[in-house]
Amino acid sequence: MLVKEEGGFSMVLQLENIQKKFGSFTALEDISFDIHQGEIFGFLGPSGSGKTTTIKIVTGQLAQTNGSATVLGKDTRRINEGIYEQIGIVTDTSGLYEKLSVYDNLKIFADILNVDQARIVILLKKVGLFDHKKKKAGKLSKGQRQRLVLARAILHKPKLLFLDEPTSGLDPTTAKQIQDMFLELKHEGMSIFLTTHNMEEATRLCDTIALLNEGRIVEQGSPQEICLRHNQDKQYRVTLNNREVMKLDDSNASAEFIYENLQNGQIETLHSCEPTLEDVFIKVTGRELL
Asked: Residue limits of the ABC transporter domain (predicted)?
């Protein structure tokens, strides 16, 4: 059962001062964050930074060395079958039964999870695979496979969904369709734990982000908060009607220039130049997201 907090939100996952050591190597150090009902939480960092280790801890696959972790109110070191029935997981290693049809792939899990088979039809339509329900999973495109894996993960309407690089390698159109699904699930009240190397995806989807580097969280907050916090050299990019592009500093002279040209109808576009999430990550870690 979820514990209601002040304001009516439910805490679905909480990590406090998590440390994980493998022998003398420290993979995670002092990791703390919360995820609430209906929130998309982005956990971002380069390969080898500790993201997968964290996911294994919060899903009960690995025990931390120190600190506490709870999912849906239960200690992750003592997760029982009841908790697994309330979470869904999508990873790059999530497999399918290649020789079975799309429909039968979902039917197997519907039987295991005691889900009404009518839910299968609803989900196949939702992920755009209804017309392929009789096709063998092994014949699907990469984007279709990823949609099927996602459908399987949300078949039982989990309270918390773990997504590990869910749109990696997909074309932009397919990736956007899947991202739209994540936003729809969020609006339905599902909580999502997302890892991704795609900073634009994280900016679009995430309510809160933690930037991870070498096992430590180096920044945390909403995408906008993080970018504005590192917007030390305030500048503005102005495109005039003659297509001339100018970069102006934050000064009275710049304000007067912008005001005059707005009055005269000479400004085509006006944008602030705060750093992107990727800019911030490179700044605080000295590493690119590879």
From this structure: 13-239
Has residue 2 been placed in a domain?
no
Distance CA 172, CA 178 (A): 10
What distance in Å separates the CA atoms of residue 259 and residue 270, rounded to the nearest whole number?
Answer: 11
In a domain, 138, yes or no: no
In this prediction, residue 287 has a pLDDT band, given cuts at 50, 70 and 90, of low
81 band by pLDDT with thresholds 50, 70 and 90 = low
3-state secondary structure of 248: strand
Q: How many domains does the chain have?
A: 2
What mean pLDDT, rounded, does the chain reach? 87
Share of the chain above pLDDT 70, in %: 94
Q: Would residue 186 count as lying in a domain?
A: yes
Beta strands in the chain, from DSSP E residues, in sequence order: 11-22, 25-36, 40-44, 66-71, 74-75, 87-90, 160-164, 191-195, 208-213, 216-221, 235-240, 245-249, 267-272
Asked if 236 and 215 sit in the same domain, the reply is no
Q: Which pLDDT does position 290 carry in this prediction?
A: 53
d(CA 166, CA 175) in angstroms, rounded, equals: 9
Let me know: does 112 contact 81? Beta carbons within 8 Å: no
Domain that holds residue 250: 232-273
Exposed / middle / buried, residue 223 (Cβ in 10 Å: 0-12, 13-18, 19+): buried
Q: Is 30 helix (H, G, I), strand (E, B) or coil?
A: strand
